[in-house]
Design a protein that fits this description.
Blueprint: E1 14-20, E2 24-30, E3 37-44, H1 48-61, E4 64-71, H2 81-97, E5 101-105, H3 109-120, H4 127-158
Parallel strand pairs: 1-4, 4-5
Antiparallel strand pairs: 1-2, 2-3
Helix pairs in contact: 3-4
Length: about 170
């Protein structure tokens, strides 16, 4: 459900991640098993109709089952104006595409993307687009990793012996 940070186990299939900004949306997608994230591009924003039409194409092309949206929480972890905007955007996505939408903490993802790009030496006109795409990859990989931990934890608790039953 939109609005909650939850990496609980979902249906198998690809996940699409969006790092939403005022001018661009960085986009990443998972592999079919939901293990790894890869960047697939950056959408130049125009208006809601155009943005959603472009997203619909990606959802179809990659057979997406779930959407992850970067949640711009404050450093304290509290929500602010931008996080409220993303919660609203996530609700719109859920309504438009009838897919589960997860908000996921994106704090420091852009800073980490900048650091990684500094290491590669990319400094030309493409940098902003690459940053947005890379931030989406980092957000999605964080979500996928948390989901994998939740699956392992859920799986191990099912097989644990209850010490109170002798």
């Amino acid at each position: 459900m939109a609005g909650r940070q939850n990496a609980s186990c979902g249906a198998p299939g690809r996940l699409l991640c969006l790092d939403v900004g005022a001018r661009r949306i960085g986009v990443a997608v998972s592999d079919g098993l939901g293990i790894t994230a890869q960047g697939i591009g950056t959408l130049q924003r125009r208006n809601r109709r155009f943005d959603f039409a472009e997203l619909r194409k990606l959802l179809s092309e990659y057979s997406v089952r779930e959407i992850v949206v970067g949640n711009p929480l404050r450093m304290s972890g509290q929500t602010g104006v931008q996080a409220e905007k993303m919660a609203d955007f996530a609700r719109q996505l859920e309504k438009a595409f009838r897919l589960p939408v997860h908000l996921w903490d994106e704090r420091l993802s852009t800073a980490e993307a900048h650091r990684l790009l500094d290491e590669t030496g990319i400094r030309d006109f493409r940098r902003k687009e690459v940053i947005d795409k890379m931030a989406a990859v980092l957000i999605l990989q964080s979500f996928l990793d948390a989901r994998a931990v939740n699956r392992r934890t859920a799986g191990s608790s099912e097989h644990e012996v209850d010490p109170s039953r002798d």
